[in-house]
Amino acid sequence: MTSPSRSLEAMRAGAPLVQCITNYVAMNFAANVLLAAGAAPAMVHDAEESGEFAAVAGALTVNIGTLSPRWVAGMVEAIDGATGAGKPWVLDPVACFATGLRRETTTKLMQLRPTIVRGNASEILAIAGESSSGQGVDAGDSVQAAEAAARKVAQEAGSVVAVTGAVDFVTDGARGVWITGGSPMMPRVTATGCALTCLVGAYAAVVEDPLDATVGALAHFAAAGEMAGDGVSGPGSFSVAFLDALMAVGPESLGAARVRAA
Ligand SMILES: Nc1ncnc2c1ncn2[C@@H]1O[C@H](COP(=O)(O)OP(=O)(O)O)[C@@H](O)[C@H]1O
Ligand SMILES: Cc1ncsc1CCOP(=O)(O)O
Ligand SMILES: [Mg+2]
Question: Which protein residues have their CB within 5 A of the ion that is ligand 3?
């Protein structure tokens, strides 16, 4: 196993280029998150160029937050490009239960076998075919309630699945890891989860085992969230402090204390 500390060092040393297909809400914040953490973002989503770009990026992330048929075409081209070039890709199924277009698109993208799926508990429950209480982009279920669903989706799709919330759970269907940390301010800042998905892509570009890569990215967020949450007065100042903390976090903050095998 590659420890989260080692993964952080590898991610910073490699400064991987990550192609992010993410939503209009998240684009700016996610790009800043990657730069602060030590990676290089590029928001490239149109079908005219997304496949070509995927072959040169270290990893691809695909987020359905502000979806349209034209975006879906760009996603499929990019996934073909990444898969053809042997690059990992990460799916963020934002509010995948909310509309027909989101349900159909998520089914289609899951059939293309994402290397990693990162969502909140309601999204992962919905992908597993179970009922969930999500409200739009926000979760209404606990991560613990989605543990079995995550294991099932991982086994069926052959993907690593990460469920995030007050605690995080990651599984490849056989192994399971819990990660603690973060701050209650994190769900009060929009696109925190979307930005995390992009960071998972950065780790996956340089860490061979997708489970280790995912744990590294989530531990990095957990440590930075904890650091930034200390003494801030609300979501606005948290958001600024969080970017600073993503850069300030070092390997010593990603120790065994916040990562536990299930
Ligand atoms: N109540 C909380 N306490 C600590 N960290 C949290 C909390 N809620 C979410 N997080 C963290 O915020 C990040 C985004 O997760 P989440 O809110 O589940 O995603 P999404 O925005 O897609 O719903 C993750 O790093 C997660 O651990
Ligand atoms: C508010 C909103 N609406 C469509 S996408 C989006 C951002 C969702 O971000 P996150 O999933 O990280 O909370
Ligand atoms: Mg989300």
Answer: 94, 193
Distance 169 CA to ligand 2 centre (A): 20
* 24's tokens: 């209009």
The ipTM is 0.99
User: Does 191 appear as a known binding residue?
Assistant: yes
Residue 238 · residue 29 · CB < 8 Å? no
Chain segment 34-76, per-residue pLDDT in tens: 999 999 999 999 999 999 999 999 999 999 999 999 999 999 9
Domains detected in the chain: 4-261 (3.40.1190.20)
Ligand 2 atom having least distance to the Cα of 194: 12
Q: Is 19 helix (H, G, I), strand (E, B) or coil?
A: strand
Rounded Cα gap, residues 219 and 226, in angstroms: 11
Question: Which atom of ligand 1 lies nearest, measured to the CA of 186?
Answer: 12
Q: What is the 3-state secondary structure (H, E, C) of 31-47?
A: HHHHHHHCCEEECCCCC
Strands 160-164 and 59-63: unpaired
Q: Which amino acid is at 73?
A: A
Q: Cβ(140)–Cβ(122) under 8 Å?
A: yes
Q: Any known ligand binding at 164?
A: yes
Residue position matching structure tokens 């999204």: 123
